[in-house]
């Protein structure tokens, strides 16, 4: 893997040289991990001015959750406390001859940027922009393997929950149990805060689990994902509790399922992001649920649970192969509940079988 990280840093170095920057300072943790193999808390990465250097406020613990650092990096642990690694990196860049340093302005606070600019006035700070985030959109097969394992863990955790007794248990308790099961099956932790929503809460995106108890006849919607070696996936499913679904529940579920299938089938290289969104949205709009649909159909996943691209009506750009995305349409009816169906897939060429579905838990409307 050292060669992979070195190649990534090499591409960043070339980009900086082309734009007139002698070096780049990477501070956003996910970007540090992408380029260095790991991201100890508070660490920043200096690329391009001599050796590639990881500056840390304290000695890395080696915790697998932080990743495994590329051994080719030079590690600098700052003495004492209170020294900002980003500020120290500016001084180091100057010592190594840099006069222009590209930084991630979108990640830096105003105060931190000012401190970096004042420590070495002879070093001009330029904006790196989202160059690394854009590089991260297309995944290599090692990254996709990590996502595939994360999805397998997530499917296992959800499958076990579906075999247990659910009536009478609270949303909060079920969410905690799912997160424990993720870790039991090998996850570093949850990819994001697990959502469990019942009854009138079901189908609501980003619902925070409450003390509401599961009741007979409820819709139950869950959204969870595993973090495996830094890579994060997402799955969302909706079920009915205890009894056969009511007619309105079947109708709503079938509608959201049709919208999700249409969007999944449109995940082909070259397809515009907004066209994928439109494939699902026009089905829900046509049924009169346009105002109940979330503003974003899906998004990229990887070292962060929400990455580019965004699959939304106003999104600009087109899909590439080997881009993992979520497809997560939902409809929430205030006071009644709703349906959410969410999968993680990888965009593939038709010759390679089309979109690869990573999260395989059944999408049949089960009565649990």
UniProtKB/TrEMBL annotation:
Q: Which PANTHER family match?
A: AMINOPEPTIDASE, CYTOPLASMIC PEPTIDASE PEPQ-RELATED
Give yes or no: UniProt keyword Iron-sulfur. no
What domain of life does the native source organism fall in?
Bacteria
Which InterPro entries does the annotation name?
Creatin/AminoP/Spt16_N, Creatinase/aminopeptidase-like, Creatinase_N, Pept_M24, Peptidase_M24B
Q: Which residues form the Peptidase M24 domain?
A: 146-348
What sequence ranges are listed for the domain Creatinase N-terminal? 8-138
Q: Where is this region: Disordered?
A: 193-212
From the record, what ranges are coiled-coil? none
The name under which this protein is listed is Aminopeptidase P family protein
This entry's Gene Ontology molecular function terms read: aminopeptidase activity
Alphabetical UniProt keywords = Aminopeptidase, Hydrolase, Protease
């Amino acid at each position: 893997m050292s060669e992979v990280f070195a190649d990534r840093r090499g591409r960043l170095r070339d980009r900086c040289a082309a734009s007139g920057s002698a070096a780049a300072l990477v501070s956003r943790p996910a970007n540090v991990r992408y380029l260095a193999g790991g991201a100890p808390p508070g660490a920043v990465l200096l690329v391009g001015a001599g050796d590639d250097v990881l500056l840390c406020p304290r000695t890395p613990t080696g915790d697998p959750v932080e990743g495994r650092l590329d051994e080719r990096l030079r590690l600098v642990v700052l003495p004492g406390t209170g020294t900002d690694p980003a500020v120290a990196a500016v001084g180091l860049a100057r010592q190594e001859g840099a006069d222009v340093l590209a930084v991630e302005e979108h990640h830096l606070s105003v105060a931190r940027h000012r401190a970096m600019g004042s420590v070495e006035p002879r070093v001009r700070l330029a904006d790196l922009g989202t160059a690394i985030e854009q590089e991260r959109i297309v995944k290599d097969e090692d990254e996709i393997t990590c996502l595939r394992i994360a999805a397998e863990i997530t499917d296992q955790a959800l499958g076990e929950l579906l075999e247990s007794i659910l009536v009478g248990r609270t949303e909060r308790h079920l969410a905690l149990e799912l997160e424990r099961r993720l870790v039991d099956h090998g996850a570093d932790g949850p990819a994001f805060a697990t959502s469990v929503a019942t009854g009138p809460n079901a189908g609501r995106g980003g619902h925070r689990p409450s003390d509401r108890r599961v009741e007979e006849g409820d819709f139950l919607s869950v959204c969870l994902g595993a973090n495996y070696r830094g890579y994060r996936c997402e799955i969302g499913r909706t079920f009915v509790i205890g009894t056969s679904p009511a007619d309105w529940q079947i109708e709503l579920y079938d509608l959201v399922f049709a919208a999700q299938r249409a969007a999944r089938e449109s995940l082909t290289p070259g397809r515009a992001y907004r066209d994928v969104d439109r494939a699902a949205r026009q089905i829900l709009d046509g049924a009169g649920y346009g105002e109940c649909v979330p503003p974003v159909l899906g998004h990229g996943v990887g070292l962060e649970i929400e990455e580019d691209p965004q699959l939304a009506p106003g999104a600009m750009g087109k899909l590439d192969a080997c881009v993992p995305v979520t497809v997560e349409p939902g409809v929430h009816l205030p006071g009644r509940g709703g349906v959410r169906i969410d999968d993680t897939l990888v965009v593939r060429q038709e010759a390679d079988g089309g979109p690869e579905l990573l999260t395989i838990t059944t999408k049949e409307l089960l009565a649990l």
